[in-house]
Amino acid sequence: MLVAAAVCPCPPLLVPEVAAGAAPELDAARAACTDALGVLAASRPDRLLVVGPAGPSGRGPHPAGTRGSFRGFGVDLDVRLGAGDAGPAAEDGELPPALAVAAWLLERTGWSDTPVEGLGVGEPLAAERCIDVGRDIGGRAERVALLVMGDASACRTLKAPGYLDERALGFDEEVTRALRTADVAALKALDAELAYELKVSGRAPWQVLAGAAENTDLAGTLLYEDAPYGVGYVVAAWS
Question: Residue 88: what pLDDT?
Fold first, then answer.
């Protein structure tokens, strides 16, 4: 069953080596992610499952030890998802970027004792399917914690990757409220088509979380919310 969850954004810019001179701009987000992972560790799970958006080549399960890389972002930096050695670096099609960021966060916080596995989910995946995937996770007999990676809208300002869309702020505010209050029903009801138009990468992973959290009494805490670079980033912890 699901015993805790952490929700974190997944821009490669979270990695200081990628952000380079702009690294201090996301210091608060990094600190919030560290706090969220602390909540996961305190729940003493039997297994940690990392869920994040992925294209076709990065979907499906990624066993512990799967490696990834930030070389595609101009940085010679490799990461590994938990302990073990499950395969080559991401340039050969292993960890998608969102899960590589998650692996970096886990390495940064010294996560090593709990078995880890990754799951890449396609951003167009229908809500019902996402929720079903989450139900399967929540139905496991073992104590499972989730690290859920994904960004809110990329249309918050004129300089945002998706330019300014007046619907973006309202969408992000509803997501933030739902993650802050652990509102499973609200996450299930997120509009997949609108999320796609607003370039939201976290919609499918958040709906996996909603399915996993059914019939639990988890409470949410908001640790960070901002839109640097015109992209909505939210950090929350459920426990």
Answer: 47
With contact defined as beta carbons under 8 Å apart, do 23 and 164 qualify?
no
Q: How far apart are CA 204 and CA 131, in angstroms?
A: 9
195, two tokens: 């999320």
Q: Using the predicted structure, report yes or no on whether residue 160 has a pLDDT greater than 90.
A: yes
The CA distance from 194 to 190, in Å, is 8
- Contact assessment for residue 131 and residue 139, using Cβ atoms and an 8 Å cutoff: no
pLDDT tens digit string along 199-221? Answer: 999 999 999 999 999 999 999 99
CB 146 within 8 A of CB 211: no
Distance between CA 114 and CA 46 in Å, rounded? Answer: 6
The structural domains of the chain, ordered by start, are 2-59+96-111+121-238 (3.40.830.10)
Q: Burial code of 22-45, b = ≥16 C-beta within 10 A, e = fewer?
A: eeeebeebbebbbbbbebbbebeb
Tell me the C-alpha distance between 180 and 175, whole Å: 8
Q: Over 90: is that where the pLDDT of 23 sits? A: no
As given in the structure block, the two tokens for residue 96 are 């998608």
What is the bridge-based pairing of β-strands 2-8 and 144-149? parallel
Output b/e per residue, 115-148; b: 16+ Cβ within 10 A: ebbbbbbbbebebeebbebbbebbeeeeebbbbb
> What distance in Å separates the CA atoms of residue 207 and residue 84, rounded to the nearest whole number?
29
Q: Report DSSP state, residue 220.
A: E
Q: Are 167 and 27 in contact (CB under 8 A)?
A: no
CB atoms within 10 A of CB 21: 7
Copy the structure tokens of residue 16. 């200081």
